[in-house]
Amino acid sequence: MALERTFSIVKPDATKRNLTGKICAMLEDGGLRIIAQKRIQLTLAQAQEFYSVHAERPFYDELCEFMVSEPIVVQVLEGENAILRNREIMGATNPADAEEGTIRKTHALSLGENSIHGSDAPETAAEEIAYFFAGLELVG
Ligand code: CDP
Ligand code: MG
Fold it and tell me: How much is the pTM?
């Protein structure tokens, strides 16, 4: 087991429905510590850059439009195996496939509007944290 950090976003469908607190509670109850957090609204250029890995996918434009449609809450989470643990707490990308008790099963509206983002690997976690936070903002 290793203490890790991962990057998380409470997505627009969730901030719009005032679910930020409920989602943070699910992350904390799942054993993760929120060591940095801020509410921001992305520009389209920032959303496109953040999701550039998906630029060739058919859902890219819709995803970027969605991510700028309302404020988001960006977070750094810390805990044992935080990257994998966070993915477990989030549940599968499509809420229809997500396990009971996961954030996406409980709160997501659809495959696109699925309430939360989480990094998928150590390299992307480090990149995504650095995209949104300065080192001084991480208070572990
Ligand atoms: O977010 P996650 O890592 O689970 O999934 P992804 O494959 O990295 O896709 C990023 C995001 O694109 C998803 O969370 C969905 O919001 C969206 N997406 C979509 O709208 N339609 C798909 N077929 C796949 C993903
Ligand atoms: Mg992903």
Answer: 0.98
Instruction: Report the separation in Å between the CA atom of 120 and the middle of ligand 1, taken as the mean of its atom positions.
Output: 11
DSSP secondary-structure letter at 99?
Answer: P
Is 132 known as a binding-site position? no
Question: CA end-to-end span of the chain, whole Å?
Answer: 18
- How far, in Å, CA of 63 to CA of 61, rounded? 5
Q: Which residues keep their CB under 5 angstroms from ion ligand 2?
A: 120
**pLDDT tens-place string over residues 16-57:** 999 999 999 999 999 999 999 999 999 999 999 999 999 999
**Spatial distance between the Cα atoms of 54 and 44, rounded to a whole number of angstroms:** 15
CA of 80 to the centre of ligand 1 (A): 25
Ligand-binding site membership of 59 (annotated): yes
Please indicate whether residue 54 is annotated as part of the active site. Answer: no
